[in-house]
Each structure stands twice: as structure tokens, then as C-alpha cells.
Design a protein that fits this description.
Elements lengths: L1 H15 L7 E8 L6 E6 L3 E6 L16 H5 L2 E8 L6 E6 L6 H11 L4 E9 L5 E10 L6 H12 L4 H7 L3 H8 L14 E2 L5 H9 L3 H10 L3 E4 L6 E4 L1 H13 L1
Parallel strand pairs: 3-8
Antiparallel strand pairs: 1-2, 1-4, 2-3, 4-5, 6-7, 9-10
Helix pairs in contact: 7-9, 8-9
The chain binds zinc ion.
The site of zinc ion has 6 residues, from loops.
Length: 255
């Protein structure tokens, strides 16, 4: 939950910087830890979806007493995919720094996009392991930023013990930014609600079935059993009877 919440918060902020209305940003983390990695996709309308490959992971807290996201992720790579509806998506990849996700996104901006940035992410849990609050910040330097500005920012960020501590005080983005940008003339220029949203549909899964090819579909029909497909993002289940698969196969022959 902590890994997914951090990744979804980060992806939402990164996607908000996309320009096109149909652009998508995907974070893919492949790690050798027990979570086996995660995938998160967000658009710039505040929608996000994601999943961890193995969600049944419980680890003891790390040395700082925090949720051990880095231990769950392990060592591996972070891939950032920006799909801007061009022929090919823009893909950047770096080795994971800590697997704690915020540090990895900070490193991604430095290494892959040469933008000095600071990313902070946090998921505040309730005792019964539900999420109370989740959020974070992305702060980036404009080119030719003043030395004094940089010094002040670094001091502010050093003074933050954890994002969850700020979320615990008050959960508004304005409060979070006010803490990170203390001493600066902060102006809020736009506000957007965010939510989990999956865009899966039966049609989408039919197209997925088509990709299996004629032979595979025919053997599924011959089996005579219903096929259940589960969306990894939202756990919706789509059931296809042999008759349904025959219809899908019919579409294959037509096209
Ligand atoms: Zn779905």
C-alpha cells in the first residue's frame, strides 16, 4: 500500500506536467524485492491507476521506523514512459537509488532530464493498515535560479523529517508546499482533484484476446470452459464463454 501510494502520488504530479490532454505518464519499477515491482499510470486530469505485482508483502519497519518500501522494492530499475500520442513514447530509465521511490524520482529528473529537482512522497497509514492520507511534492529549479533561492530551498527540504509528518499536521497541498517553500512568495495557480480511475472495458479485453491468435483461441473454445480475465489495475473480472470467444474469433477472421 505504501509503495503503491507513493508511486501513484508521484505519477500524478509528474503527469500534471504533461502538455497534451490525452498524454499519459507511466512509472514502471522492476525490483528484486518481494513486491516484484509495480506499474502506475496517470494522466493530466488527475486520474491514476496502478498495481504492485505481489501485493501480499509485510515487512518490519526500517531502521528509521518507517514503512520499508525500499526493502519491498529491492534493487532494479525505474522506467518513466511518457506517451504523448506520437509514433513512439518517450522512455527514460535509471537504476533504482534506494527503492523508496521519492529518491528514485529525484534521481530520474537529474540523470534523465537534467532538471535539478526534489521529490518527497508519503503515505500515512492508520493502525488498521488503511490509508489516512497520501501525498507529496515535486520542486524543480528554473534555469539560472539564484544561489540564495537554492540555499533556502535546500535548507527547507533538509528541515523536513518526512512527508508523512507534514501530512499528519495538515493534509492540504497548500500546507505541504508552504513548508517546502517557506520564505518564498508562494502563489497557487491551479488546483485539481485527483482520484483512482481505471479505463478497462470488455472491448479492451476482447482486443487483448485477439492478440493471442487463432490457434490459441480455438483451443480455448475446444476446452469448453469459461475464461475469466481480471484487470490488474482495478480487479474487475471479465468472463468470456466459449461462445463469446467464438464471436471474438469471428472478428479476427473478418479483419
Ligand atoms: Zn480495470
Amino acid at each position: 500500500t505504501a509503495a503503491l501510494g507513493r508511486a501513484m502520488s508521484g505519477a500524478l504530479m509528474m503527469a500534471d506536467m504533461l502538455k497534451g490532454p490525452r498524454d499519459l505518464l507511466t512509472l514502471q519499477i522492476d525490483g528484486d524485492g518481494p513486491l516484484q515491482g509495480l506499474v502506475v499510470t496517470a494522466d493530466n486530469h488527475g486520474h491514476v491507476k496502478g498495481y504492485v505485482k505481489n501485493p501480499s508483502v509485510i515487512l518490519p519497519p526500517n531502521a528509521q521506523g518507517h514503512l520499508n518500501v525500499g526493502g519491498g522494492i529491492g534493487r532494479g530499475t525505474l522506467t518513466v514512459i511518457r506517451d504523448m500520442n506520437l509514433k513512439d513514447p518517450y522512455i527514460g530509465q535509471i537504476p533504482l537509488v534506494t527503492g523508496e521511490i521519492a529518491e528514485d524520482l529525484t534521481a530520474y529528473y537529474a540523470q534523465s532530464e537534467q532538471i535539478p529537482s526534489s521529490v518527497g512522497l508519503g503515505v500515512l497509514m492508520n493502525r488498521e493498515n488503511t490509508v489516512r492520507r497520501a501525498g507529496g511534492f515535486v520542486v524543480q529549479l528554473m534555469p539560472f535560479a539564484d544561489e540564495d533561492v537554492i540555499r533556502q530551498l535546500e535548507e527547507n527540504i533538509r528541515g523536513i523529517s518526512s512527508v508523512t509528518a507534514i501530512l499528519e499536521e495538515e493534509s492540504t497541498p497548500e500546507h505541504l508546499l508552504g513548508t517546502v517553500l517557506k520564505g518564498f512568495d508562494l502563489q497557487v495557480t491551479s488546483v485539481e482533484d485527483v482520484c483512482f480511475q481505471c479505463n478497462c472495458s470488455r472491448e479492451r479485453f476482447e482486443r487483448g484476446l485477439l492478440l493471442l491468435g487463432k490457434d490459441e483461441l480455438e483451443s480455448m473454445i475446444a476446452d469448453g470452459k469459461d475464461v475469466e480475465l481480471t484487470c490488474q489495475f482495478c480487479n474487475s473480472v471479465y468472463t468470456f464463454s466459449p461462445e463469446d470467444i467464438r464471436t471474438v474469433l469471428g472478428n479476427l477472421s473478418v479483419s
